[in-house]
Amino acid sequence: MTVFLIGAALLLAVVLSLLLPPLLRKEQAAGHVQRDQLNLAVLRDQLRELESDRDAGLIEQTAYDSARRELERRVAEEVLPQAEAPAASDGKRWAAAAVGVAVPVLSISVYLLIGSPEAMDPTQQVAAAHQQNSHEVTAEQIEGMVASLAARLQNEPDNVEGLHMLARSYNAIGRYVQAAEAYARVVKLVPNDANLLADYADTLAMALNRSLQGEPERIAAQAVKIDPKNIKALALWGSAAFERKDYAAAAERWQKILPLVPIDSDIARSTQGSIAEAQSLSGQAPVAEAKTEAPKAAAAGTSVTGTVDIDPALRAQVSDTDTVFIFARAAQGPRFPLAVLRKQVKDLPASFVLDDSMSMTPEAKLSAVPMVVVGARVSKSGSATPAAGDLVGVTEPVTPGATNLKVQINKRNG
What 8-state DSSP symbol labels residue 331? Predict the structure, then answer.
């Protein structure tokens, strides 16, 4: 507000400086008055001398009359017009006073009528800034939403959908222990769902310091037994074997994925690379790539697919076990994630599929928005809340249903 008032005052001063000087030249008028009075005194002396010469007989009456007329003419031409100058100067001073008052009053009145004086109020500025950022969902708001959901579910122990949502929400904000506990409650209510078991195994591994050994591997194996074509369960089952250096078993388990995906898909290429690495470490000869059959495509507009990689120039700044969050959010509006997938740096380049099943709330689904931004973020802390120093990369806005997206992690959060 101070800057605005200073600028307005300077502008008003400039306007008045242009308008007032011509109206305030009274000094010049005063100079004319003093000079006219002197001229009049001289002419009066000359008239007295002329009358004295006539009375003394030095000049004739005809010469006196002619000289007097000349003096009167000079009085009329040189003194009388200038004698009126003070009155004109007084009029100008009144005009100057009127302009000096009218210009600021008129300017302020017009601004109050058609301007925005409330914009100078600091409280209004704060309110406007708050309104501008009102669409930004903060980490505290997300935590509050999750806490409210958890409190409500204390009285609804059999709410499968709510517990599943709570597990995904805890997972998204990096609270893996609570997420695993929520998944444990869900699988007790729905014990034969391979997708739930695969998610439970993945989350429990994160809670156990990113290890698939023990209970996570057992749960993944159970999911494979229920659904031998569950790609996530097969991937985790193979990763568990690879983690304990049973490379032959890892390659064998991963091989089961290839017939389930298109041969030219990112998932197929990533899986083939993992199989080749396991075979090399086990001393086996690489097996020829199996032909695959394309599964039924996901419903149009309900998912986005692609690959994530990290800029080679930044690879040395992260560790293999750092968490990578792959997410989709609305291109316009709240920045709340619509779908989230978690990987590790060692998995890069990694294929991804983000769909409505990864939504944190039923109201916020990927398929419900016209345009989304897909991105990836490396978090050393493993927290789903963005932090300064995280490495990130995002795509341009795309429509739900987009495929073969390329996300490169290539910059650092400020």
Answer: S
Structure tokens at 285: 């000869």
Q: What angle do CA 385, 377, 264 make, to 5 degrees?
A: 140
- Average predicted confidence (pLDDT) for the chain: 76
Structure tokens at 295: 């599964």
Interior CA angle at 259 toward 256 and 263, to 5°? 125
What's the CA gap between 47 and 194, in Å, rounded?
A: 131
Q: Which residues contact 11 (CB under 8 A, 6 or more apart)?
A: none
| DSSP bridge partners of 377 | 325, 392
Q: What is the pLDDT of residue 261?
A: 82
Indicate the SS3 state at residue 21.
helix
The separation between the first and the last C-alpha atoms of the chain, rounded to the nearest angstrom, is 30
In contact, 250 and 238? CB cutoff 8 Å: yes
Which pLDDT tens digit goes with each residue over 26-75? 444 444 445 555 556 666 666 677 676 677 666 667 666 766 777 666 66
Model pLDDT for residues 70-108, shown as the tens digit of each residue: 766 666 665 544 444 444 455 555 555 555 555 565 566
CB of 92 closer than 8 Å to CB of 24: yes
Where is 70: in which H helix or E strand?
A: helix 61-78
Residue 375, helix vs strand vs coil: strand
189 Cβ contact list (under 8 Å, min separation 6): 158, 160, 163
Contacts of 401 (CB under 8 A, 6+ apart): 300, 301, 302, 303, 304
Q: 264-307, pLDDT tens digit by residue?
A: 777 888 888 788 888 878 775 555 444 444 334 344 457 899 99
Q: Which of 331, 334, 315 is nearest to 402 (CA)?
A: 331
Q: What is the DSSP string of 379-404?
A: ESS--SS--TT-EEEEPPPB-TT--S
Rounded Cα distance, 386 and 138, in Å: 10
* Residues 266, 263: Cα–Cα separation, whole Å: 9
Query: What is the C-alpha to C-alpha distance for residues 136 and 138, in angstroms, rounded to an integer?
Result: 6
pLDDT score recorded for residue 227: 92
Tokens found for residue 377: 């973020």
Alpha helices in 154-246 (DSSP H): 160-172, 176-189, 194-207, 215-226, 231-243
